[in-house]
Amino acid sequence: MDRTGIQPDSALAGAVTELAEVLGPKGIFTQAGDRARYASDQSGLVGDTPVAVLRPASTEEVSRVLAICSRHRIGVVPQGGRTGLSGGACSPQDAVVLSTERMSGVVEVDREAMTLTAWAGTPLEAVQEAARAADLDYPVDIGARGTATIGGTIATNAGGIRVLQHGMTRPNVLGLEAVLADGSVVSRLGKTVKDNSGFDLKQLFIGSEGTLGVVTKAVLQLRRHVPQSALALFALPDHASALVCLTAARQRFGSRIRAFEGMWPDYWNFVCHQTALATAPLAGQHGFYLLVEIEAASTQTEEELEAFFADLFERGVFEDGVLAKSLAEMRALWSVREAVGEVDDDFGHHINFDIGVSPSALGNFCDAADSVLAELPEAVGVLKVGHVGDGNVHLLVAHDGSAAAEERIEAAIYGLLRDWQGAVTAEHGVGRIKARWLGHCRTPEELALMRGLKTQMDPLGILNPSVLFRDTEI
Ligand SMILES: Cc1cc2nc3c(=O)[nH]c(=O)nc-3n(C[C@H](O)[C@H](O)[C@H](O)COP(=O)(O)OP(=O)(O)OC[C@H]3O[C@@H](n4cnc5c(N)ncnc54)[C@H](O)[C@@H]3O)c2cc1C
């Protein structure tokens, strides 16, 4: 027996032979060079090279390979595009990866029901494009849209920049097909909007990070496509003013607020001045920056946004602002916010916290985090950027790369978070990286119920061992 309790090499080799028989030559990678590419995701955590990479092309193949893995008690890591930021798709020792890359494609777009059915391995962007071709819209949108898959966004309940308007992934999934650890298929791919016939089982798989089943297909709820929008960037004295602005925007624009994104001065100065990652669209120093996108209801939307700006400027809520007048100007404004995806090289070793608190408490929480970090010599830099309307801040804390520094900083921030009754992850998921901190935002009773569900659905604990629960290594 090795560290994970998996059978010795010979038995593992026997299992791989069985898996190869089911999947055929295109469906399995066993060469070291091929396997190494599937070890890790984008979280920075370095995974082990998987024993084999399984590439099933159908639900039936997923079912057969999971039954084999169960029989041999082999850990299975479901993988989509490997863009995850919490180590959920990183391979532990002696596990196989189950990649959905060959289960890709849009199966159907139903314009009347406003639904799209897709295989789990379909890239998010391909789904968005297929919806647009039907003059509809799939509203879940994240920076990694070109590579992240539908299965991955479902497994992580991905959020992104349009949560305020259409919610996270959860409310945008109507039907789901998943395969349990023993190979049984749970399929409910209907387009029923209203369905109170018992438990809504699909919700168990959404956000479960591959620990309860492998998602193979989904029916997604599409929305009306509104191509036009107006975008403005505002400079404010502080986060409290951003909340005033949010309340005013909700009153004036209601559900037409497409994005309401915030940048603290540490982030703004880093991407616009310390590095050349973005060009500053506004001059001077301000206490907070807000990017507001409003869906167009008519050709008057720019004027509406201007009037909104003028009103709040007069009331002293805004200090400065700029309204995008063209698509190129819109891209330029968005590029400041999206530069967070490019800070890694310039910012050096850092922890990327993905914290959720009540939207009304976000500013004060960030002030408290700044104070806590100022006391820690290990924390050598802080950047804050996030989704103001959702109370979600991406708090990036630079350190010297040592495990001790990481430990001290995490303990300080997650300790603070516990006091504020927040979430250790608002959208990226718990994965392997945050599993040890889950108890900071979930009660013992909640954790026991989660473990009970895990045991019921995956009694041998083969699906994504040590993700979400630290004690689920098989
Ligand atoms: C530049 C960038 C920007 C990002 N922006 C956002 C953002 O705004 N909001 C946000 O929420 N996230 C964001 N992310 C994180 C990431 O893109 C999402 O978590 C995404 O949902 C992961 O999709 P994936 O296909 O790459 O999944 P992977 O990384 O392959 O896997 C993620 C998790 O899902 C599980 N999984 C994958 N496929 C399946 C399946 N078919 N069945 C069961 N489990 C499965 C894996 O085991 C793992 O636990 C960003 C990442 C990057 C690199």
List the helices and strands and how they pair.
Blueprint: H1 9-23, E1 28-29, H2 32-36, E2 53-54, H3 59-72, E3 75-79, E4 95-99, E5 106-110, E6 115-119, H4 124-133, E7 136-137, H5 150-155, H6 163-166, E8 173-179, E9 185-188, H7 202-205, E10 214-221, E11 223-224, E12 229-236, H8 239-253, E13 257-263, H9 265-274, E14 288-295, H10 301-314, E15 320-323, H11 327-338, H12 344-347, E16 350-356, H13 362-374, E17 381-387, E18 392-398, H14 403-419, H15 444-457
Parallel strand pairs: 2-4, 3-4
Antiparallel strand pairs: 1-2, 5-6, 6-10, 7-11, 8-9, 8-10, 12-14, 12-15, 13-14, 13-17, 16-18, 17-18
Helix pairs in contact: 1-3, 13-14
General description of the model:
The structure is a single chain. By secondary structure, the protein is α+β, with helices and mostly antiparallel strands. It folds into 4 domains: 9-102, Uridine Diphospho-n-acetylenolpyruvylglucosamine Reductase, domain 2; 111-224, Uridine Diphospho-n-acetylenolpyruvylglucosamine Reductase, domain 3, CATH 3.30.465; 229-341, 2-Layer Sandwich (Alpha-Beta Plaits); 348-441, 2-Layer Sandwich (Alpha-Beta Plaits), CATH 3.30.70.2740. The protein has helices spanning 9-23, 32-36, 59-72, 124-133, 150-155, 163-166, 202-205, 239-253, 265-274, 301-314, 327-338, 344-347, 362-374, 403-419, 444-457; strands at residues 28-29, 53-54, 75-79, 95-99, 106-110, 115-119, 136-137, 173-179, 185-188, 214-221, 223-224, 229-236, 257-263, 288-295, 320-323, 350-356, 381-387, 392-398. The strands form 4 sheets. It has a 7-stranded antiparallel sheet, with helices on both faces. β17 (381-387) and β18 form a beta hairpin. The relative contact order is 0.12. The site of flavin-adenine dinucleotide (FAD) has 38 residues, from β3, α5 and β10. Residues 46-225 form the FAD-binding PCMH-type domain. One of its GO terms (biological process) is respiratory electron transport chain. InterPro entries: FAD-bd_oxidored_4_C, FAD-bd_PCMH, FAD-bd_PCMH-like_sf, FAD-bd_PCMH_sub2, FAD-linked_Oxase-like_C, FAD-oxidored/transferase_4, Oxid_FAD_bind_N, Vanillyl_alc_oxidase_C-sub2.
